[in-house]
Amino acid sequence: MWGKLLGVCFGFMFGRWLGAIFGFWLGHMFDKSLKQDFDKVGGFQGFFKGDDLHQRQALFFSSCFAVMGHIAKSNGRVSETHIKAATLFMDEMGLHGEDRQEAQNAFRYGKGNDFELKGAVNDFKEVFSRRYDLLQLFLEIQIQMAFSDGHLAPQEVQLLQKVSQLLGISNTHFRFILKRYQAEFKFREQRAQQGDYQRQKGSQTAQQSESITRMQALAVLGLTEQATDKDVKRAYRKLMSQHHPDKLVSQGLPQHMMEVAKKKSQDIQAAYEFLKHPS
C-alpha cells in the first residue's frame, strides 16, 4: 500500500502522469515482495541494473581470483598444492579460453608484490555492501583455497581474518564460518568413504565412524550435538537460502561460479538428509 502511494507521488513529481503510472508499478512491486528481498537485489536500482549486473559479476570474478592468489602466497611462495587447487577450481567452473586466462591473470596479479589487499577488498565491499550473502560466499571461497591442503597455516588464518574484517564480517562470525567449512571439508571426505562404512556395518569401527559423521553433519549446519530437530530444520533453511545459486547470480555472482554455490548447497542438503535419515 505505502509503496504504491509513495511511488505515485514521486512519479508524478518527476514525470507527471506518465511518471505516476511508472511509480505505481514500482510501488506495487515493492509492496508485493518482502522489503528484505527487495533490498537484496539492489532496491529500486535493481530495475535499472542492465550492464551493472555484468560489471558486478566481472568484479566478483577478478577480485575473487586476485585475493585467492594473495592468500596462496601468504607464506612467501605459492605451493604446488595451492596451484593445483586453483587449477581444479577453474576446472570445476568450466573456465576455458579468455575466461580462464582472465582468472589466471587475476590470480597472478594477487600474488604479486604490488597487490594491495586492503584496497582490493574495500573496492569489492563498496559494490557488494548490501549483498551480505555474496560477501560471505566470497570469504568462504577464500577459506576453500587456503584449506586446499587440508590445514590452515597461521599466516593464512591471519589473512583470512583480515579479509573478513575488511568485508565487515565480525570475528565471531568469521570463526563460525571457518569452523563450518572445516566440518564441510571433513564431511565431504567421509561421504566418499560411505561405501566402506556400509561394508563394515555392525562393527565397532563402523559405529565410531558413523558417530563422527553425524557430528560433522551437525557442524556443516553450524550446530552442536545439543541441537534439536527444530534447530536442524531452521539452520538448514537459512543456509540453503544463503547459498541458493539463482539468487546469488541475480545479485552479482558470475555464472561460472554458480557451480560453487551448487556444490555448497549439495553439501548442506546431504548433511540435512543424513541427520533426517541416519544410516
UniProtKB/TrEMBL annotation:
InterPro entries this protein is in?
Answer: DjlA, DjlA_DnaK_co-chaperone, DjlA_N, DnaJ_domain, J_dom_sf, TerB-like
Entry-linked CDD domains: DnaJ, terB_like_DjlA
Membrane-crossing segments per the record: 6-26
The places in or outside the cell where this protein is found are: Cell inner membrane
Where is each J domain found? 216-279
The UniProt entry's coiled-coil ranges are none
For the Periplasmic compartment, the record's topological domain ranges are 1-4
Q: What's the protein's topology in the membrane?
A: Single-pass type III membrane protein
Read off the SUPFAM superfamilies from this record. Chaperone J-domain (SSF46565)
* Residue ranges, Cytoplasmic side: 29-279
Q: What is known of its domains?
A: The transmembrane domain is a dimerization domain.
Instruction: Write out the function statement from the record.
Output: Regulatory DnaK co-chaperone. Direct interaction between DnaK and DjlA is needed for the induction of the wcaABCDE operon, involved in the synthesis of a colanic acid polysaccharide capsule, possibly through activation of the RcsB/RcsC phosphotransfer signaling pathway. The colanic acid capsule may help the bacterium survive conditions outside the host.
What name appears for this protein in its UniProt entry?
Co-chaperone protein DjlA
From the broadest rank down, the organism's phylogenetic lineage runs: Bacteria, Pseudomonadati, Pseudomonadota, Gammaproteobacteria, Alteromonadales
